[in-house]
Design brief:
Length: about 160
């Protein structure tokens, strides 16, 4: 399919296929190739000026950085995806927020992870994106209880 899109000079089809291919590389455990392919898809999304595709591919680039253990870089890419998706692409926003939560947690920013995960869970639940909601809730569970909430009513 990728070759057919290339022959037809169908950049949107090619970038969508590359984005999916990068996710397959990540699932196979080949994060370096996944990152390379995701960056190509992201560059194509920029070239065709497709905000939704740019948000989607930014999140895929972020997933690759997270798989490579680069949580800070992943968080920056997820933040880019959140901003691009805000106000018109709720799936992309929820996906990027859930990823941002995971990246922040891995980087040791528990409060930031809780915040992003809460936003992701809310957006995903409102749109009935159950898998993304589950992913966000898993980060919330891993982050543990919010000390500010659990200490309410206790004397210092």
């Amino acid at each position: 399919m990728l070759a057919a899109y290339r022959r037809a000079a169908n950049l949107r089809g090619e970038l969508s296929t590359l984005d999916e291919l990068s996710l397959l590389h990540l699932q196979r455990g080949d994060a370096a190739t996944g990152l390379e392919v995701a960056r190509r898809a992201y560059d194509m999304a920029i070239a065709v000026r497709d905000r939704k595709a740019t948000a989607q591919t930014a999140a895929t680039v972020a997933e690759a950085y997270l798989a490579l253990g680069e949580a800070g870089t992943a968080a920056a890419w997820f933040e880019r995806g959140v901003e691009l998706a805000r106000g018109g692409y709720p799936y992309g926003q929820a996906r990027a927020l859930a990823g941002l939560a995971a990246a922040r947690l891995r980087a040791g920013d528990v409060a930031g992870a809780r915040d992003a995960a809460g936003q992701a869970a809310g957006t995903a639940a409102a749109c009935r994106f159950r898998l993304l909601e589950g992913r966000a809730r898993a980060v919330l569970a891993e982050a543990g209880p919010d000390r500010l909430i659990t200490n309410v009513g206790k004397r210092a």
